[in-house]
Design goal:
By secondary structure, the protein is mainly β. It contains 2 helices and 35 strands. The N and C termini lie far apart (73 Å).
């Protein structure tokens, strides 16, 4: 009997060790219940980098211990809906942290979020959706184009030649640190654009693309002679260019959900966060994908980021989760079973109405809601007991402005999400 008891105790101790606990996704201590929209990492302190998250109404939070604890970092941030970050760590003793906000323009902090100052001179559109930085040059993607600052945000000028009034959702640089990096912009319903002169002028680079909305961009080998540019889409999965945008091809083998909200890179590892199927990993430039979701209780991924040895994920109203990178050296086959499925709305993009379909494996209580980009509930479409099988409902957005909306389906305390593009 003593031997059996010792054996049981040994098993319990093994499963409670930190090593085992981190062989899956684990939830960090916060921000509690936050809808995380963006990450920023200031790696000037190599031992413990500063990790920032932005939210659509609660401002900025900071962790100095890889997510173990979080604290508010929104001093004098007068607009608390944060959509984008950029970090200039050129001066290690005083890194610059920029935050792009919804209606408040760009804010700058030189003390890790303790205090923020608006830096909007010349920035005519203060609804900032994306930021990219190259030394003192800062690019802001807004709802009707882009703006350029050559003096760390002190002043701005329009930088939309060739871009028109395209709504810029994402920005990424290749050859960062050089005088003329390759700057890519993903837009809402107008494809991908390239600038080779720091945003002064742009040209469309759409050959091979079958989608037009790109919320996420990433680069493997950004400072090599042959960088690999990846673009995530709503419904079309991931596209790859190996010739600086001259042509693109879809790379979706194994990517069972092609509604990609975000991308992140660690060396040769490429991670894709989806709206309702969790995180996928490719270790061969998108040739094949597999899910890496063990431990996640919600598969609605808004944003992913790499910091040191960890991959972080912001999950819809579930705060920040993390997983150790080293355990994801090969693709996992332990995909979570799917008890229900939320399908992509059709048509998408749509105007003014669209059909939302879902499949239930068993009867259960179902809530289907629609949220805007700030996480505000727009409408409850379904709330009640639904039988197993295929179901669909119409969503009429005739009184709503153009933009990206989120459909959220919840049953048995599990949630799935998808993005919908309303274009008027």
């Amino acid at each position: 009997m003593k031997l059996i008891n010792l054996f049981i105790i040994s098993i319990a101790l093994f499963f409670s060790t930190p090593e085992f606990a981190h062989c899956q996704w684990v939830q960090t201590s916060g921000p509690a219940g936050a809808f995380v929209t963006c990450f920023a990492i200031d790696g000037t302190n190599v031992a413990s980098p500063n990790l920032f998250v932005g939210t659509p109404g609660s401002g900025v939070y900071l962790s100095t211990n890889n997510g173990s604890t979080w604290s508010p970092a929104s001093g004098k941030l007068t607009t608390t809906s944060v959509h984008a970050f950029a970090v200039d760590s050129t001066n290690a003793s005083s890194p610059l942290l920029f935050a792009g906000t919804d209606g408040g323009g760009v804010f700058l902090s030189t003390n890790n979020g303790t205090l923020w100052t608006a830096v909007n001179t010349g920035l005519a559109n203060t609804f900032v959706q994306a930021l990219a930085i190259n030394g003192a040059r800062l690019i802001a993607g807004v709802a009707d184009g882009a703006y350029l600052s050559t003096n760390s945000g002190a002043s701005w000028s329009a930088a939309s030649t060739g871009l028109g009034n395209a709504s810029v959702l994402s920005l990424v640089m290749s050859s960062q640190g050089t005088s003329s990096p390759m700057l890519f912009a993903g837009t809402l319903a107008k494809g991908i654009f390239l600038s080779t002169d720091n945003g002064t002028s742009w040209k469309g680079v759409d050959t091979g693309l079958t989608e037009t909305t790109f919320q996420s961009l990433a680069v493997i080998g950004p400072n090599t002679s042959s960088p690999k540019i990846f673009a995530g889409t709503f419904g079309g999965g991931v596209f790859l260019s190996t010739n600086n945008g001259t042509s693109w091809k879809a790379v979706n083998n194994g990517l069972t959900n092609t509604n990609v909200n975000c991308l992140a890179v660690s060396g040769t590892k490429l991670f894709a966060g989806t709206d309702s199927s969790g995180v996928f990993l490719s270790i061969n430039n998108g040739t094949s994908w597999a899910p890496v979701n063990t431990g996640l209780v919600d598969l609605s991924i808004n944003v992913v980021a790499v910091s040191q040895t960890n991959l972080f994920a912001g999950i819809f109203n579930e705060g920040v989760w993390k997983r150790t990178l080293s355990e994801m050296n090969s693709v996992s086959q332990n995909e979570q079973p799917v008890t229900f499925r939320l399908e992509q709305n059709y048509p998408n993009p749509f105007n003014p109405s669209t059909t939302i379909s879902f499949v239930l494996a068993e009867r259960g209580m179902v809530t289907l809601e629609v949220f805007d980009m700030l996480g505000r509930k727009i409408q409850t479409l379904i709330h009640g007991a639904i039988e197993a099988g295929q179901h669909s409902t119409r969503f009429d957005a005739g009184n709503l402005p153009s933009g990206i909306y989120t459909a959220s389906l919840t049953t048995n305390n599990v949630r799935r999400e998808m993005k919908m593009v309303l274009g008027k």
